UniProtKB/TrEMBL annotation:
Entry-linked PANTHER family: HTH-TYPE DNA-BINDING TRANSCRIPTIONAL ACTIVATOR EUTR, HTH-TYPE TRANSCRIPTIONAL ACTIVATOR RHAS-RELATED
Domain of life of the organism encoding this protein: Bacteria
Taxonomic classification: Bacteria, Pseudomonadati, Pseudomonadota, Gammaproteobacteria, Methylococcales
Keywords from the UniProt entry: DNA-binding, Transcription, Transcription regulation
Record SMART domains: HTH_ARAC
Protein name per Swiss-Prot or TrEMBL: AraC family transcriptional regulator
Record-level Gene Ontology MF annotations: DNA-binding transcription factor activity; sequence-specific DNA binding
Pfam family, one: HTH_18
Domain HTH araC/xylS-type: 259-359
Keyword presence, Transcription: yes
SUPFAM superfamilies in UniProt: Homeodomain-like
Organism: Candidatus Methylospira mobilis
Length: 363
């Protein structure tokens, strides 16, 4: 059932304390909708509503659990967008001031504020999400969240096994369980800036990609964005493992390991290639893999993969038959965005892919 009572909520100095009265539970508001902050994935696929019932339904969208909610302002308005990338569940939402109680939540969630602030109480302690400053990791399965005016945020279902796999690949350590336990199994605020890196800006760039491709889930999966997000979460949750001075990271890299990963890349250019997968194949840490490619090829692994794909596409276009098309050849070489492919191809070979294709078909 919904909870209805008078609350006094104290926010940090940047958001003054206030007392809000809530409406009767279940009342459908007919008043003019309050303007909400924009969702980071855009509003075209969002669900919105003006009642408590629809708010409860949207909050649990993609995130199972028991929820009690109560409005904390005279108007009720909310909107949400739920997206899956592989096995990763993502929920973006914006809402007027609300109290949301969650119980028996069978997942660990990472909440990233994109506008405004909110206060989360878990295990009798208060934590704050502040846009551009702090996110919040909830692992206890029970919480009370109070959102302020103009709040919007993105919530990720963070799987422990996936995080541990990503950490092993990035660090090269055989066992990362102690790090995962410390990162994954405690409620805490998570800084959105570390060692000069703005994770807020980095995550927003990922949100822009999701917005661009949310109607094409296969393309999102091919880009391996879920792997990129987990790698970013690992750096956010355990910055001490990654964000250090790499100027002395000149350890000798076994060339056999590097050759092995290069052969693997060449054999799988038509498939998505995540860095954590390459680290696992090579047995090298993220730092060692980057260093090995930089020393041998003068570029990063990602740049080398792009160069190999461009070369493969160029060779296939030169041998194309009358039935071949630029898009089909580009997709078979692992490219998912035709505009980016055309631009990179022109920079590399000095002509458009269609020109190479036409020359081959006219021979």
């Amino acid at each position: 059932m919904y909870v209805c009572k008078v609350l006094v909520v104290e926010f940090p100095d940047s958001l003054p304390a206030g007392t809000w009265l809530c409406k009767k539970p279940g009342l459908c508001m007919k008043t003019k909708a309050k303007k909400l902050s924009a969702l980071p994935f855009g509003d075209r696929n969002s669900l919105s509503g003006l009642s408590l019932d629809s708010a409860a339904e949207s909050i649990s969208l993609g995130f199972s659990g028991d929820y009690d909610i109560a409005p904390l302002s005279a108007e009720i308005h909310h909107k949400t967008t739920a997206i899956n990338i592989g096995e990763m569940h993502i929920l973006a939402g914006a809402l007027t001031p609300f109290l949301v109680k969650g119980d028996r939540l069978p997942f660990t969630s990472l909440g990233i504020p994109t506008s405004g602030q909110c206060c989360v109480t878990a295990n009798k302690r208060k934590y704050y999400q502040r846009t551009g400053h702090t996110a919040f990791l909830l692992s206890s399965g029970r919480s009370e969240t109070v959102t302020g005016d103009g709040y919007a945020g993105v919530y990720f279902d963070v799987q422990k096994s996936r995080l541990e796999h990503t950490l092993r690949a990035m660090t090269g350590l055989e066992s990362t369980r102690k790090f995962v336990n410390s990162a994954h199994e405690q409620d805490r605020e998570v800084p959105l800036r570390a060692a000069g890196i703005s994770f807020d800006k980095l995550l927003r760039s990922y949100f822009a990609q999701i917005d661009l491709l949310q109607d094409q889930p296969q393309a999102l999966a091919l880009l391996g964005l879920d792997d990129t997000l987990y790698r970013t979460f690992a750096m956010m949750l355990l910055p001490e493992l990654f964000l250090i001075d790499n100027s002395k990271s000149n350890k000798k890299v076994d060339q056999r390991n590097l050759e092995q990963v290069c052969n693997y890349i060449q054999a799988n250019l038509d498939k998505p290639l995540a860095l954590s997968e390459l680290e696992h194949i090579s047995g090298l840490s993220a730092r060692s893999l980057q260093y090995g490619f930089q020393r041998r090829f003068g570029c990063t692994p990602t740049q080398w993969i792009r160069e190999q794909r461009l070369t493969l596409a160029h060779n296939r276009l030169k041998l194309a038959t009358s039935c071949d098309r630029v898009t089909g050849i580009a997709l078979s070489c692992g490219f998912t965005h035709m505009g980016v492919f055309g631009r990179d191809y022109y920079v590399r070979f000095g002509e458009r892919p269609s020109e190479t294709l036409a020359r081959a078909q006219n021979c």
